[in-house]
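Researcher: Here's my situation. A collaborator sent me these components and asked whether they could plausibly form a single complex. I don't have experimental data yet, so a predicted model of the whole assembly would be a useful starting point for our discussion.
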Amino acid sequence: MAGAGGGGNDIQWCFSQVKGAVDDDVAEADIISTVEFNHSGELLATGDKGGRVVIFQQEQENKIQSLSRGEYNVYSTFQSHEPEFDYLKSLEIEEKINKIRWLPQKNAAQFLLSTNDKTIKLWKISERDKRPEGYNLKEEDGRYRDPSTVTTLRVPVFRPMDLMVEASPRRIFANAHTYHINSISINSDYETYLSADDLRINLWHLEITDRSFNIVDIKPANMEELTEVITAAEFHPNSCNTFVYSSSKGTIRLCDMRASALCDRHSKLFEEPEDPSNRSFFSEIISSISDVKFSHSGRYMMTRDYLSVKIWDLNMENRPVETYQVHEYLRSKLCSLYENDCIFDKFECCWNGSDSVVMTGSYNNFFRMFDRNTKRDITLEASRENNKPRTVLKPRKVCASGKRKKDEISVDSLDFNKKILHTAWHPKENIIAVATTNNLYIFQDKVN
Amino acid sequence: MGEEEGLHQTQLLDTMFVRGLKRKCFDGEEDIEGTLAGFKAIPSYNLQRQSLLDMSLVKLQLCHMLVEPNLCRSVLIANTVRQIQEEMTQDGTWQMINTQSAGQTSLDRLVSTDILCRSSKEQAEGKLVPVYSTFTKDCEGTQSQDNSEIMSTVTSPQVPKNLQSNMWEMENPQENRGNFQKSLDQIFETLENKSPNTVEDLFSEVDNSYYDLDTVLTGMMSNTKMGHCDLETFPSQTSTNSKSNCKSDLNELDHIVEILVES
């Protein structure tokens, strides 16, 4: 549980590590675009705008001195996607990694899916810590020996070597999306996955790259009638026939693949009626859902729109069961935020391992956590100022109007260039990864 | 523009939208100081709505041309524009627009997003001519000079004043809105076709203005729309209206955007 610090079961979040360049001059390619823990939490993957994937591995805990959990260090770095040019449309295809999703581990190697706007790739990350030595025909450096010098026969043996981590692309799933891919989600059957773009959702088999099935298509026959796009999609964690997708109009549709091959008709439609007192020209834009995530239990799902986080019970379609305001003080600034395009920022959200706390990002490098049980919330900042490990983070507060108290920050001094769009929570422990523009912060709870 | 800058510039609009607060609309540069001194008037809702419409139309135009524009963003902005249009129709303000004649040749037309929304087809058909008659006449005699210089000297004193007066003047709302209907339709058309080619069309004239013959020949156009910059269709340095129109488009666009986003 997260709390304001002190007493009982409240978590105190501490700085652990920060990865990335120190200087303020951010190289475009280094902008982090996705963050994801694997199923055990031992590995943490990030994707960036330059098409690279960096995987961090948690060090094994020091059993004697468990003052803190293991640190995350670079495990593997590889170029996942390259920039491409679509000659037919005369447009560039960005190499930016939009999403990474890990497969559950089945053998010694790790597998993940990474996607840019158009192409999904399955990567195998494997370790090599032994190599054969003692070949008959080759020298140690690989050169072939002069056959006349070979006088004896021996069997090569494996000897330990420095750990080498190799990433190799095993499958490339291409040419199935006309529009930009915004989501990928692996099915609980661990054999299929879905990919969603602005207007369509496709179902793939992990082994088959030359075919995918279209399961949702909201493209109107006449594009003049287009008023709504798909913004996110996810498979249910337990039911392999169920998935949801969210839209730019603030609706979520739950579909059952058993009902028909093309799931254009939803099984459930989740939508909260609009509050007439808050109506403005920006109502639709701020209702657009930027992320949807099922709880680990599969009973609930969480959606993020511009100003709030909502928890929905899958059994109740007409309204969310919980709503948390992330930065309500921005409601009076919507016109400015529309003008500078910040209103279109897509914030993600995540659950903790026990589904008791949810987290999402905000501006000024702030991120917010909401405890569903205690109904308490906390605002923290990802900044290099709290640089020492095990420094407890101080809660922050934004002053909406009127007199600003000491330590509070006024809305007008928020830095809208410093946005936290991507956050991830370790599946089992209280360790979180928070991405600022080009830095990755790792925080963990204080271990006494 | 920096986001802090953006916030500051539209703080005016923010307060107008939320609390209908305390600033007089601009009548022109020289009037501002007088009016700011303690004058408190609630700006009309129509004015607020108009400025939001302007902003939205500018946004729809100014998408990145290197990469396919973000469809979600475009759809949301277009929906906002439609919403405003519907409300204006219900208000009756939209009907006033329909009665406007299309034959305005004054600089008032520069106020509208007609320029911003004009498709290449329309420009090719010469519908541009009435609007740009002022400019083309001026530049015909001096083709040896850099056209852009002329354009800017011609436009800069005139356009800002007129733009401002037309944008913000309460007495003359009809002229402003007169051109929006057409421009909206064009916007929807281009959005609705949804293929980048259409957006391409929208920008083809503007794009052309960026490239002179040298640029094309040296193949520096790694981004966008080679198709529209064929050497055959490219005017030579010493011609003609089409090139000067391109350059004037560019400068007008700059001026308009500058003014629209300034408070």
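Model: Some features of this prediction you could bring to your collaborator: Chain A is about 0% helix and 40% strand. The first helix of chain A runs from residue 283 to 287.
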